[in-house]
């Protein structure tokens, strides 16, 4: 990546870390719903910015719609597509019904680790899109910080600091794994994994965190449903 792309990625991770800090300290006072709504709003705006800025203007990098539109109709591609969906949704559900706080915290940590690897994959496919994704999902870090605070009661001093550096460490792990396997895994595989991850975000993550907490149907959610369906159909067709 260029030095400018690395700078943008660093700023994105800084925003993610600051959001984690704010969520840890302000979450108990403000509650989760305002942050969940801001997450939905920012992600929706991000999709429209992606459509207009990246897809309607000339670009040599694969973009969000290009990733979702990538066609590789084989059994292997379906396995790649559904691997992030199954892993992330399974861990997300386990956090809710695990019998002990330690198991819930462990599942939540593993989910963050996988998400860090996937986010770095996105940064490798398209550095600018990966950086934008970090900025746009910073409100999600607020919700994560509040969740971990609930799971780790009584809260210990410095736990938020562990969470901040933990999230950045997962991105670092993604860097090591993906750069180490870069010669073995093609760009097509990265594209397919990203399509599955975005499908997970559209159908599972936002449903559990946004729609289920809403008093009335949220119209922008249709954007994410369309994303997920398009990603799945383009793999199957």
Automatic annotation (TrEMBL):
Q: Does the keyword Transmembrane helix belong to this entry?
A: yes
Task: Report if keyword Transmembrane helix is assigned.
Answer: yes
Q: What is the organism of origin for this protein?
A: Abiotrophia defectiva
Listed transmembrane segments? 35-54, 75-97, 117-136, 157-178, 184-206, 218-236
Name of the protein in its database record: Uncharacterized protein
Question: Which UniProt keywords are present, listed alphabetically?
Answer: Membrane, Transmembrane, Transmembrane helix
């Amino acid at each position: 990546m260029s030095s400018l792309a690395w700078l943008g990625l660093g700023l994105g991770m800084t925003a993610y870390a600051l959001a984690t800090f704010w969520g840890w300290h302000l979450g108990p006072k403000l509650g989760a719903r305002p942050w969940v709504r801001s997450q939905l709003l920012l992600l929706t705006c991000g999709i429209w910015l992606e459509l207009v800025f990246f897809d309607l203007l000339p670009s040599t990098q694969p973009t969000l719609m290009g990733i979702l539109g990538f066609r590789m109709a084989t059994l292997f591609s379906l396995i790649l597509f559904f691997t992030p969906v199954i892993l992330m949704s399974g861990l997300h559900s386990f956090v809710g019904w695990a019998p002990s706080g330690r198991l819930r915290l462990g599942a939540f940590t593993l989910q963050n680790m996988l998400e860090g690897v996937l986010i770095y994959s996105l940064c490798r496919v398209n550095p600018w899109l990966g950086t934008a994704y970090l900025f746009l999902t910073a409100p999600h870090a607020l919700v994560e910080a509040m969740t971990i605070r609930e799971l780790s009661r009584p809260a210990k001093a410095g736990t938020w600091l562990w969470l901040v550096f933990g999230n950045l460490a997962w991105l670092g792990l993604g860097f090591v794994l993906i750069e180490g396997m870069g010669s073995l895994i093609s760009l097509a595989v990265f594209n397919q994994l990203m399509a599955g991850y975005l499908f997970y975000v559209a159908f599972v993550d936002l449903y559990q965190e946004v729609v289920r907490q809403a008093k009335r149907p949220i119209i922008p959610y249709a954007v994410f449903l369309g994303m997920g369906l398009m990603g799945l159909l383009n793999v199957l067709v």
